């Protein structure tokens, strides 16, 4: 019975590794170091001074992180319930796997659970956190899309290649960050 639960828990974890790599890490590694140039005045006029780039020339990943932060900040003011729900899913993914591991280890120490059950409980918690995380990524991507449209309309980047690299990297960053933090230990 434990082997069946182990297989059931392993499937979403493997899918998370694949999704995170395909939509996130692969794109970040190919486009993240692309040198881009933006117009800082247009950036400040469009997005304000909270998340302004440090200079007009930087890697695409720096602009993408700032764009992602700007999108999340704008989303929190536009749709506070959806943003709070997404933040709750993030906290769930951060808290539940380690907590389940601690509870399982206590059960093992006391002698109530075999080590296989502890592993299954821990992997099931990771799988649940991953499933919840990827099921709730659509509103965050929509918020990023709205902010991307504002970036394109303002023509902040003089070259369309730079703009495209930053937008693709920002979307990839959202996919990478959407997985529970425990995946950062295994797949940085």
Q: How does this model look, in words?
A:
Helix 1 runs antiparallel to helix 7, helix 3 (60-78) packs across helix 4 (80-110) and helix 4 (80-110) runs antiparallel to helix 5 (115-135). This protein has helices spanning 2-31, 40-47, 60-78, 80-110, 115-135, 137-154, 160-178, 182-186, and strands at 35-37, 57-59. The protein is built from 8 helices and 2 strands; from the N terminus they run αβαβαααααα. It is elongated, with a radius of gyration of 20 Å. It has a two-stranded antiparallel ribbon. By secondary structure, the protein is mainly alpha-helical.
Overall 3D shape: elongated
Major β-sheet strand ordering: 1-2
Estimated structural class: mainly alpha
N-end to C-end Cα span:
33 Å
Rg from Cα:
20 Å
- Which runs of at least 5 residues are low in confidence (pLDDT < 50)? none
DSSP, total strands: 2
Strand content: under 5%
Order of helices and strands: HEHEHHHHHH
Topology of this protein?
Blueprint: H1 2-31, E1 35-37, H2 40-47, E2 57-59, H3 60-78, H4 80-110, H5 115-135, H6 137-154, H7 160-178, H8 182-186
Antiparallel strand pairs: 1-2
Helix pairs in contact: 1-5, 1-7, 3-4, 3-6, 3-7, 4-5, 6-7
